[in-house]
Design goal:
Blueprint (H helix, E strand, L loop, with lengths): L6 H15 L10 H21 L32 H16 L1 H9 L18 E9 L13 H4 L18 E9 L14 E10 L8 E11 L4 E5 L7 H4 L7 H23 L29 E6 L4 E2 L13 H9 L8 E2 L2 E8 L6 E4 L13 E5 H32 L3 H6 L2 H25 L3 H42 L7 H4 L24 H6 L30 H35 L3 H15 L4 H10 L7 H20 L11 H24 L22 E2 L26 H7 L1 E6 L4 E8 L4 H4 L6 H7 L3 E3 L5 E3 H8 L16
Parallel strand pairs: 12-14
Antiparallel strand pairs: 1-2, 1-10, 1-11, 2-3, 3-4, 4-5, 5-6, 6-9, 7-8, 9-10, 9-11, 13-14, 15-16
Bound molecules: 2-acetamido-2-deoxy-beta-D-glucopyranose (NAG) (7 copies) and zinc ion (2 copies).
C-alpha cells in the first residue's frame, strides 16, 4: 500500500488552481498600440463634443437624425431607445420632489443658492456606504432583442452578435444592492463641493431569470451632496456613458455643472491614460475587478442610475438630552468618522430611492417603496454609512472570536479527558476531522475576508490566528486518536489472522500473569481458586479467539506492567506505517481544504439558486459531524465517548455563526436570510444531540435491530442475567456465585434467588452489587417480570460483566477502563467500551 505522498504534487495542484482562477490577461497583440491610439482618439472626440454641446442638443428627436449626437451610443444607428429618456426623467423628478419637497426641488434644479436659506435638506454629504432593497419593473420598460441593437456595427469582431445580453433584467422584480464610494482626495469636486465624483458597485438580481441570476457591475457618475442626488452610468465600447452624462441631467443648471466637472475630470483621466506604459482601455469600465470586459463575446446591457437620498430623521430619546436646535448633520458625519466621544443621536438608516434604465436593453426599474408600495412591504433601499458598517463588522468579529475561544476551551477540556488510549479509542476520528476542516475553512476565510469587508484587517488576522490555533490543536488531537485507533485496528487484524490457526503453540507462549501480584487498584485480590475458572468461560465463547488476547492493546504505555511483549517485532512494525499514514493524512487534509475553498469561491459567483443549494449542502454536511460518532458508538457498542459539555458546547458554538448568516437581515457578508434552511439545520443538529444522548442513556444500539448485517458482534457489558442450571452465563461472584455456596459474608444464594436478585462483590470498591436476575424457567419472565422488563433495561446499566465473567459496578469499571483495558481480577484483556 502506497501511503506516502509527494508534497510537490499538491503544490502543483495549487498553482494549477491559481492559474485557473486568475483573470485572463489582455494579450498584447501585434496591433495593440494602433488600436489603443484609436480608442484615445475617440475619447478626445467625445470630450470635444462634451465641451461644445449645450443643454437640449440631445433628446429633442426630429427628422433627419436631429437630436442625436456623434457619440458612441447616442447615434441614431446605434439603435438605443432614447425616446424613453424623457419619461424616465419625468419619473425621477417626481420621485425627488416627493422626497425633497416642491421648494427644495426647485432650488436644486435652478441652482439658486441664496445665503438666506438655512434649512437645507438633512442629507449625508458623504454617501460612502451601502444600501439594499428590492426593485420593481416600471411600465415604461420595453423589450429589446439583440437583433435591434446592431452590435456588429460597433464591435465588428464580436463572434456572437446575436447572443443574449448580460444584465438583461426581464423579470418584474429582484434584489438590488449598491455600494457607493467617494473617497476624499480621490473623488474630484468643484471648489464648493456642490458636485463631486462618485462610484458605485451595483449587485442586482432577477427573480424570474433561470436559477435567479445576478450581476455585479460598476457605475461612475456625479453626486450633488447638498441635495443627495446622484446620477451614474456604465461606460463601454458600445456606450460612451460618462461623456453623455450631462445630457442625462434634469435641468440646464445641473447640465452645466456636470459638464464643467466632467470636462475637467475626464481630461485629467485621459491625460493619465496617454502616459501609461500598459494600455488602460477603459478607465470607467463597468466590469468588476478580476472579470474581463465582454469575455467570450458576451455583451451586456448598459445602465443609467438616478439616486435620491432621503433626509435623515434624528430620533431623540425621550428623557434624553435635547439636541441642539440647529443640530448639524455635518457635525454628526464628522463625529461618525472621527469619533471624539460625542453623543450621537439615534437616526434613521441611510435610505435611497432609485430609478434606473437601460438605454439599450430597454428596461426601466425603480426601487420598491412608498408611495406605490406600503412602507411595511418595502422601504426603497436602506443601508448604512461605511463607518456604521465597520462598527457592525467589528462587533461581529468580536463575537466570532468569543465563539472560537469557547470552541477551543471545549476542545481542550475534551482532549484532556481523553488522555488515555482507551478513551481515545472511543472517539470518532471523522467527527474531529470534520471539526478541524470547519476551523481550517474559517481560517482561510478570515485571512481573505478583509478583501471583502475592506476593514478590520488587524482584528481579522488576530482571529485567523485563533482559528489556526484550534486547527493545530484539533490536528494534534486527531493524531493521538489516529495512533491509538491504528494500533487497535492492527491488533484486531492480527487477532483475526491468527484465529484460524490451530492453537497448538498456546500453552508455552501464554505469559498468563497468574504468578504476578495483582495491579494496585484492586485491593481485594481474588482467591487463587478463581483464576482457574476463566479458562472454561473463554473457551466456550466462539466470538473470542482463545490465544492472542494476552497481547495488551496498550502496549505503548503499559511497559511497566508488561515486561516483555510476546513478540518484540510488533512494536516497530506498528509505528512505521502509522507514521507514514499520518503524513498522508495531513497532506490529504490540506489538499481537501484547499480544494473545498476554491470550489466554494467558484460557487460564490454562481446563480443564486445554485449558490444556495451548494451552501446549504456544505453546511448540512459540516453540521453532520456527530453522525460518525453515533456510527462509531454503534459499531463498537460504546456509549461514553465524549464529554457532555463538549457535545452541547460544540454544537451551539458552531451553530452561532451559521445562524448569524442565515438569520440576520443586514449581516456583514450580505447573505440572504433563509429561515427555513436555518430551521432545518438547527433541527438536524438537535436530532444528532438527541441520538447521542439516548445512546448514552439507553445503550448505543437501542435503535439498531439485532439482525442487521453491518453491525458487528460486540461484547455486551450489560447483559440481562438469567439463571440456568449450569450457571454458565452467571458472573463468577467471589461471594455469592451460585456454584460456590461456601461464602458466609453476604446473603445466602437461596435467599436472594427468591426475590429475583443476587448479590455480588465488586473487587474495585470492595462493596456489594445487588443485581436483578431472571430466575430459571421461562414462565417467570413473562409472568412476574413482565412489567419489570423495562426497568430491568435501566437497572442493568448499573453493573458490568466482563467476558471473563467478573462483575463490577459500572462507574468502578468505567473509571478503571479509562486507564487499563484488562480485567482487574484476572488481567484478561477487555474489549473497549
Ligand atoms: C472647449 O471649447 C472651448 C471653446 O468653447 C475651446 O476653447 C477649448 O479648447 C475646448 N476644449 C477642449 C478640451 O476641447
Ligand atoms: C462622427 O465622427 C466620426 C469620426 O469620429 C466621423 O467620421 C463622422 O463623420 C461623424 N459623423 C457625423 C454625423 O458627424
Ligand atoms: C446598423 O448599422 C448600419 C451601419 O453600420 C446602419 O446602416 C443600419 O441602419 C443599422 N441598423 C439599425 C437597425 O440601426
Ligand atoms: C432580454 O431577455 C428577453 C427575454 O428573455 C429576450 O427576449 C431579449 O431578446 C433579451 N434582450 C437582450 C438584449 O438580450
Ligand atoms: C467619506 O467617508 C469615507 C469613510 O469614512 C472616507 O473614506 C472618505 O474619504 C469620505 N469621503 C469624503 C469625500 O469625505
Ligand atoms: C462657492 O461659494 C461662493 C460663496 O459661498 C460663491 O461666491 C462661489 O461662486 C461658489 N463657487 C462655485 C464654483 O460654485
Ligand atoms: C473645458 O475645459 C477646457 C480646458 O480644458 C476649457 O477651455 C473649456 O472652456 C471647458 N469647457 C466647458 C464647457 O467648461
Ligand atoms: Zn464498585
Ligand atoms: Zn476477569
Amino acid at each position: 500500500m502506497e501511503t506516502r505522498r509527494d508534497p510537490r504534487q499538491f503544490l502543483f495542484f495549487i498553482i494549477l488552481l491559481l492559474l485557473i482562477n486568475s483573470p485572463e490577461t489582455q494579450n498584447p497583440g501585434y496591433n495593440t498600440r494602433t488600436r489603443y491610439d484609436e480608442v484615445l482618439e475617440r475619447e478626445w472626440q467625445h470630450l470635444d463634443i462634451l465641451n461644445q454641446t449645450r443643454w437640449g442638443d440631445f433628446g429633442q428627436f426630429g427628422k433627419e437624425g436631429e437630436g442625436y449626437l456623434n457619440v458612441t451610443g447616442l447615434r441614431e444607428e446605434d439603435g438605443f431607445v432614447w425616446d424613453i429618456l424623457g419619461g424616465v426623467k419625468e419619473r425621477v423628478r417626481e420621485r425627488s420632489k416627493g422626497v425633497l419637497g416642491e421648494e427644495e426641488m426647485g432650488r436644486f434644479l435652478k441652482g439658486t443658492d441664496d445665503e438666506e436659506v438655512i434649512e437645507k435638506p438633512r442629507v449625508y454629504k458623504n454617501l460612502t456606504g451601502y444600501a439594499q432593497g428590492e426593485w420593481v419593473r416600471s411600465p415604461l420598460s420595453r423589450i429589446r432583442h439583440p437583433v435591434d441593437l446592431n452590435v456588429s456595427h460597433v464591435l465588428p469582431d464580436n463572434p456572437f452578435p446575436f447572443a443574449e445580453f448580460d444584465r438583461n433584467l426581464t423579470g418584474v422584480g429582484g434584489p438590488v444592492r449598491l455600494h457607493l464610494t467617494e473617497l476624499e482626495g480621490k473623488a474630484r469636486t468643484d471648489t464648493n463641493r456642490s458636485i463631486s465624483e462618485i462610484q458605485a458597485k451595483v449587485v442586482i438580481g432577477d427573480h424570474e431569470s433561470w436559477g435567479e441570476n445576478w450581476w455585479e457591475f460598476l457605475a461612475h457618475g456625479v453626486h450633488y451632496p447638498e441635495y443627495g442626488v446622484a446620477i451614474l452610468t456604465t461606460t463601454s465600447e458600445r456606450f460612451a456613458g460618462v461623456f453623455a452624462l450631462p445630457h442625462m441631467q434634469l435641468s440646464s443648471h445641473l447640465y452645466s455643472s456636470a459638464q464643467k466637472l466632467l470636462n475637467r475630470t475626464l481630461h485629467e483621466t485621459m491625460d493619465r491614460q496617454v502616459g501609461r506604459m500598459y494600455p488602460v482601455w477603459n478607465p470607467w469600465t463597468s466590469s468588476v475587478e478580476g472579470t474581463n470586459d465582454g469575455a467570450l463575446g458576451a455583451t451586456h446591457c448598459e445602465v443609467v442610475l438616478f439616486l435620491q437620498e432621503f433626509p435623515v430623521a434624528l430620533e431623540n430619546k425621550p428623557g434624553g438630552q435635547q439636541s441642539l436646535p440647529g443640530y448639524s448633520l455635518d457635525w454628526l458625519e464628522h463625529e461618525l468618522r472621527y469619533p471624539t466621544g460625542g453623543r450621537i443621536p439615534r437616526r434613521s438608516p441611510l435610505t435611497m430611492s432609485m430609478v434606473a434604465f437601460s438605454p439599450d436593453c430597454g428596461f426601466v426599474i425603480e426601487s420598491k417603496g412608498p408611495p406605490e408600495h406600503s412602507p411595511s412591504e418595502a422601504t426603497h433601499l436602506t443601508g448604512s454609512k461605511t463607518e456604521e458598517f465597520n462598527d457592525r463588522a467589528r462587533h461581529g468579529i468580536l463575537a466570532f472570536a468569543v465563539t472560537l475561544s469557547l470552541q477551543l476551551w471545549f476542545l481542550i477540556r475534551q482532549a484532556k479527558e481523553a488522555a488515555t488510549p482507551s478513551t481515545r479509542n472511543r472517539i470518532s476520528f471523522y467527527t474531529v476531522a470534520v471539526m478541524a476542516l470547519g476551523d481550517g475553512f474559517a481560517f482561510l476565510s478570515l485571512v481573505f475576508m478583509h478583501l471583502f469587508l475592506g476593514t478590520s484587517q488587524l482584528q481579522l488576522y488576530t482571529i485567523a490566528f485563533l482559528a489556526l490555533f484550534s486547527v493545530v490543536l484539533e490536528l494534534r488531537f486527531l493524531m493521538d486518536i489516529w495512533t491509538v485507533q491504528v494500533t487497535e485496528q492492527m491488533r484486531q487484524d492480527r487477532q483475526q489472522a491468527s484465529t484460524p490457526t490451530p492453537p497448538s503453540p498456546q500453552p508455552p507462549a501464554t505469559p498468563n500473569p497468574q504468578p504476578r501480584a495483582p495491579p494496585p487498584p484492586s485491593p481485594t485480590a481474588p482467591p487463587p481458586r478463581s483464576t482457574t475458572l476463566p479458562l472454561p468461560a473463554t473457551a466456550n465463547r466462539p466470538a473470542r479467539p482463545p490465544t492472542p488476547i494476552i497481547i495488551p492493546s496498550d502496549q505503548d504505555f503499559a511497559a511497566d506492567d508488561i515486561p516483555t511483549p510476546t513478540n518484540p517485532t510488533t512494536t516497530p512494525a506498528a509505528t512505521t506505517p502509522a507514521r507514514a499514514e499520518l503524513g498522508a493524512l495531513y497532506s490529504r487534509y490540506c489538499l481537501f481544504l484547499i480544494i473545498l475553498f476554491f470550489i466554494t469561491l467558484q460557487f460564490t459567483t454562481m446563480r443564486s439558486t445554485a449558490r444556495a443549494i451548494y451552501f446549504n449542502t456544505i453546511i448540512f454536511l459540516y453540521l453532520s459531524f456527530w453522525v460518525p460518532q453515533i456510527y462509531r458508538n454503534i459499531m463498537r457498542n460504546c456509549r461514553k465517548a465524549l464529554r457532555w459539555d463538549f457535545v452541547v458546547g460544540q454544537s451551539v458554538v458552531r451553530m452561532v455563526p451559521i445562524a448569524y448568516f442565515y438569520g440576520v437581515e443586514d449581516n456583514v457578508l450580505f447573505s440572504r436570510t433563509d429561515w427555513r434552511a436555518l430551521a432545518v439545520l438547527a433541527g438536524w443538529m438537535w436530532l444528532q444531540i438527541v441520538a447521542l444522548k439516548s445512546q448514552e442513556v439507553l445503550g448505543s444500539r437501542f435503535f439498531v435491530r439485532e439482525g442487521w448485517a453491518w453491525v458487528p458482534v460486540a461484547y455486551d457489558y450489560h447483559p440481562i442475567l438469567r439463571e440456568d442450571e449450569e450457571g454458565a452465563t452467571m458472573p463468577i461472584g467471589s461471594s455469592t456465585a451460585p456454584d460456590s455456596p461456601t461464602e458466609t459474608t453476604s446473603l445466602q444464594p437461596g435467599e436472594s434467588k427468591g426475590k429475583g436478585r443476587k448479590v455480588f462483590d465488586c473487587s474495585i470498591c470492595a462493596q456489594d452489587i445487588e443485581v436483578p436476575v431472571i430466575p430459571s424457567g421461562g414462565g417467570a419472565v413473562d409472568g412476574a417480570q413482565g412489567g419489570g422488563l423495562g426497568s430491568l433495561m435501566l437497572q442493568r446499566r448499573g453493573y458490568m460483566v466482563t467476558p471473563c465473567r467478573h462483575i463490577f459496578h459500572t462507574p468502578c469499571l468505567e473509571g478503571w477502563m479509562r486507564y487499563r483495558l484488562m480485567c482487574p481480577n484476572c488481567r484478561e484483556v477487555l474489549p473497549p467500551l
